[in-house]
Amino acid sequence: MKEDKKTCFGNRLIPEEEKEGKVRELFTSVATKYDLMNDLMSFGTHRFWKRFVASKTELSPGQRVLDVAGGTADLAILMAARVGPDGKVVVYDINRDMLELGRDKCIDRGFVKNMGYVQGDAEVLPFYDNTFHCATIGFGLRNVTHLDTALAEMKRVVKSGGRVMCLDFSHPTNRFFGRVYDLYSKNVIPRIGALVAGNREAYVYLHESIRKFPDQEKLKSMMENAGLSNVRYHNIFNGIAALHIGEKI
Ligand SMILES: C[S@@+](CC[C@H](N)C(=O)[O-])C[C@H]1O[C@@H](n2cnc3c(N)ncnc32)[C@H](O)[C@@H]1O
Q: Is 166 in the pocket of ligand 1 (CB under 6 A)?
């Protein structure tokens, strides 16, 4: 008898084919409160983290960038400012509600002409090989079923000499700090999620998925296995988050 392949959804093991639907449902339920929750949970610091990522893209005017799992377009907006009106930013996300909120935000900030929005799965990017100067994924890889497939896809669509960049929660390097942070994310964040977004479970999933996500060194090797070169990472806030950068040669 054929056995179902399982994957993690937070702490639960579920059949692989169910994960995408569950993740999509989760983001639909929190979409309208997503930005507010980010500000509350991180005390606004996620804005600095994203600015740091945008600065490390080293994008210049006229270039093309893909933001995978781009959601409400924070990173896309920062990168749109870098590539300018002659460049192009494509926001790619599996969830229509997140994508629409992102598109509205871009329009409100005056980024219209050089933006594109495409709905789909990070594991199957509907773009030709060697299309973009850079591909980013911010707080998205954790939610994907096959991380290695998504990384290989990002590498495929980036031009030779381009960058693949992954910003996500990671593992604090100081044990005491890590313990305090773990208690905060386990006990406080789900309460804020219940009060503000009306969905405690979504923020329990956040905590659990962070714990399950590969640590800095493991993710670095996964990017190397995806064929990226010169892979390195920057710990942010003692490793609460990390930015991994790899190059396609
Ligand atoms: C935590 S949000 C991050 C949004 C944005 N990048 C940011 O930094 O604020 C995760 C996003 O990943 C998207 N997502 C989850 N699984 C995905 C998949 N398999 N393919 C593409 N997008 C996915 C969700 O819909 C959601 O918008």
A: no
Q: Is residue 19 one of the residues assigned to a domain? A: no
Distance, CA 140 to ligand 1 centroid (Å)?
4
CA distances from 210 to 2, 8, 29, 119 (A): 31, 11, 19, 24
Amino acid at 70: G
Q: Which two tokens stand for residue 240?
A: 């609460």
Helix, strand, coil shares, percent, the chain, to 5: 50, 25, 30
CATH number of the domain to which 36 belongs: 3.40.50.150
Query: Ligand 1 centroid to 119 CA: how many Å?
Result: 11
* Domain contains 106: yes
Query: Which tens digits make up the pLDDT trace of 81-125?
Result: 999 999 999 999 999 999 999 999 999 999 999 999 999 999 999
C-beta neighbour count of 126 within 10 angstroms: 11
Q: Are 4 and 164 in contact (CB under 8 A)?
A: no
Interaxial angle between packed helices 16-30 and 34-42, expressed in degrees from 0 to 180 and rounded to the nearest 10:
90
Task: For 6-36, write each residue's pLDDT tens digit.
Answer: 999 999 999 999 999 999 999 999 999 999 9
Atom of ligand 1 minimally distant from the CA of 20: 19
